[in-house]
Design goal:
The structure is a single chain. The protein has 613 residues and is an alpha+beta fold. Among the domains are: 112 residues; 79 residues, Calcium-transporting ATPase, cytoplasmic transduction domain A, CATH 2.70.150; 113 residues, 3-Layer(aba) Sandwich (Calcium-transporting ATPase, cytoplasmic domain N). It is built from 20 helices and 22 strands. The strands form 4 sheets. A 7-stranded mixed beta sheet has the order 10-22-21-20-11-18-19, sandwiched between helices. Strands 2-1-3-9-4-7 form a 6-stranded antiparallel beta sheet, with no helix packed on it. Strands 12-17-16-15-14-13 form a 6-stranded antiparallel beta sheet. β21, α18 and β22 form a beta-alpha-beta unit. The radius of gyration is 33 Å and the shape is elongated.
Length: 613
């Protein structure tokens, strides 16, 4: 409980004591009784009166503070002093419970996202200094002992250990790291000591990006939240006008009964407070975003959470999303040169590229690569690479590249990514590279279909044969192969026209070339904290591990959250309108009105907190 909550409890207790003293120790009509009741009212209600006054001065008249002030001051005017104090007292008790519930949900999310390391042990001038992570520069060496949290992203130089990544990815299985492998900030080192070379400053580290995403998620509001805000702006002045008409018209029509109808109008005002909606709906989305974060799913705003719930078409990139993106040379087919010579030429020409295919060629060759012999290296987007090697023009790439230089291609029976190699216009042979499908991909596609996603589509720059093979194995409805990044955007734009009315198109990718497509889709989803920074920045949702099965889970969480928000809206409105009618008919007393308002609010908040789970 916070200091503010304790002060509120003291005010409520003081007001309760003063109310009881006035009712049970002093005779009716005693002037001192009125003084005690006014003191009891001010003890618990002065902040509501102050807020209402400040809002009126700023032009924000119709809010719950105004309604409660008008209702209780009106009760004083008609001589119902105890009722006025009781209304304000019960209202403040409800506000206290509400504030405590919100504080508890925020604390749950803060604990959930408590991954920020406080210090980093840095090697400087032969000594180890304990510094704030913000003070550590790129390329410095940090020491991470067992039990400590990795403070910054980097590469392991010495030591091997097991990392607990649960706080980041939601994955309970630990990850083993050895020298040469990347580690990300926020993980807990479980076993051996590590020496890590820092690769990113703290502001660009994984943990900083995650915290920034979660902290700013509330800024992007869902349509349901925006509706509630707009509804409250219209609803509040309407009920105030209705209460005024209820107070004026019947007495004028009947020639009296001003006190009776004034009391009913005040009850009407008390019931009309929209706090159950205004608080519980944003709290529901806040809880949904926090619950998703606990599962390793970062959602950048409640508008994206709402869009996830309406997923109609899901479009996947292939490499690194549905497949592991770990390429291995499967077959080498030399033509005019020997197998090792073909590998040497391909690996040398690809030596300047960091593409997974290039890395796999270099790894398979294992020989010495003479980069000094290379000149005029050109990366040809969506086709391959070209360079001068030992005075001859070498081309290494796909079918499109060979066709563009006028080289005839043989038929290859093997399924995989084919790298053709040509010297000038002479065909030297081709190398088949295969990529392994992720274990959870087929289950993810099946789960999406079961969740009501109407169509799954795969876009890839790979060959038709590879794309067909992957699509058939995973049960994907439709695929498009041999695409350049710009063509992927064109296909997404075409698919946007095919989505069902009210449905949303989701694109899931991980590479830097996916950033334009992620931005163009209704909801862009990036795979993995170790994926491209550009993809993570462009995406609306980030799946912290590379498991595609997180996607149907994200949709389930989004739908559950939206369901809870709708339950709160329907429940609150139904009870409100029922009690409003009873108040207008004189059946509901002010006490009933307050209990109805506070009770509805508390039930809605408790329901909203389910989203955290």
């Amino acid at each position: 409980m916070t200091r503010g909550h304790r002060l509120d409890l003291i005010r409520i207790a003081a007001s309760t004591v003063l109310l009881l003293l006035s009712l049970f120790l002093l005779p009716q009509g005693d002037p001192f009784q009125s003084i005690l009741l006014i003191l009891a009212y001010l003890a618990v209600g002065w902040d509501v009166l102050k807020e209402a006054g400040e809002h009126i001065l700023h032009g924000q008249i119709f809010d719950e503070n105004f309604l409660m002030s008008l209702a209780t001051l009106g009760a004083f005017v008609i001589g119902e002093y105890p009722e006025a104090v009781a209304v304000m007292l019960l209202y403040q008790i409800g506000e206290l419970f509400q504030s405590y519930a919100v504080h508890k949900s925020r604390r749950s999310i803060s604990a959930l996202m408590d991954i920020r390391p406080d210090t980093a042990a840095v090697e400087r001038d032969g000594a180890v200094l304990i510094l704030s992570p913000e003070e550590v520069a790129v390329d410095e060496i940090i020491i991470v002992k067992p039990g400590e949290r990795v403070p910054l992203d980097g590469i392991v130089l010495e030591g091997s250990s097991t990392l607990n990544t649960a706080a980041l990815t939601g994955e309970s299985l630990p990850r083993d790291v050895t020298p040469g492998e990347e580690v990300i900030s926020g993980c807990i080192n479980q076993s051996g000591m590590l020496r890590v070379k820092v690769t990113k400053p703290y502001g660009e580290s994984t943990v900083a990006r995650i915290l920034d995403l979660v902290e700013n998620a509330a800024d992007q509001k869902a349509r349901v939240e925006s509706f509630i805000t707009r509804f409250a702006r219209v609803y509040t002045p309407v009920v105030v006008a209705a209460a005024l008409l209820l107070f004026v018209i019947p007495p004028l029509a009947s020639g009296g009964g001003w006190t009776l109808w004034g009391s009913r109008a005040l009850n009407f005002l008390v019931v009309s407070c929209p706090c159950a909606l205004v608080i519980s709906v944003p709290l529901t989305f806040f809880g949904g975003i926090g619950g998703a974060s606990k599962q390793g799913i970062l959602i950048k705003g409640s508008n994206y959470l709402e869009a996830l719930a309406k997923a109609d078409i899901v479009v996947f990139d292939k490499t690194g999303t549905l497949t592991r993106g770990v390429f291995q040379v499967a077959v080498v087919h030399p033509d005019e040169v020997g197998q090792q010579e073909l590998l040497r030429i391909a690996a040398t020409v690809e030596s300047y590229s960091d593409h997974p295919i290039s890395r796999s060629l270099r790894a398979h060759y294992r020989g010495e690569i003479n980069t000094q012999a290379l000149e005029g290296v050109q990366e040809l987007a969506g086709q391959g690479v070209s360079a001068l090697l030992e005075g001859r023009r070498i081309y290494a790439g796909n079918d499109k590249l060979m066709t563009s230089i006028g080289v005839d291609l043989p038929n290859c029976p093997h399924v995989g990514t084919v790298v053709h190699v040509a010297r000038d216009q002479e065909y030297l042979g081709h190398i088949v590279i295969s990529d392994e499908i992720k274990e959870g991909s087929a289950m993810a596609v099946k789960a999406l279909a079961q969740a009501g996603v109407r169509r799954s589509v795969m876009l890839t720059g790979d060959s038709q044969a590879v794309a067909r093979d992957v699509a058939e194995k995973l049960g994907i409805d439709r695929f498009y192969a041999g695409l350049l990044p710009a063509q992927k955007v064109e296909h997404v734009e075409a698919l946007l026209k095919e989505k069902a009315r009210g449905g949303q198109l989701l694109f899931v990718g991980d590479g830097i070339n996916d950033a334009p497509v992620l931005t163009r889709a209704d909801v862009g989803i990036a795979m993995g904290a170790l994926g491209s920074d550009a993809a993570v920045e462009a995406a609306d949702v980030v799946l912290m591990d590379d498991n595609p099965q997180r996607l149907p889970l994200a949709i389930h969480i989004a739908r559950k959250t939206l369901s809870i928000a709708r339950q709160n809206i329907l429940f609150a409105l139904a009870i409100k309108f029922l009690i409003l009618i009873l108040a207008a008919l004189g059946i509901a007393t002010m006490w009933m009105a307050v209990f109805a308002d506070v009770g509805v609010t508390l039930l809605a908040i408790l329901n909203a907190m389910r989203a955290l789970r």
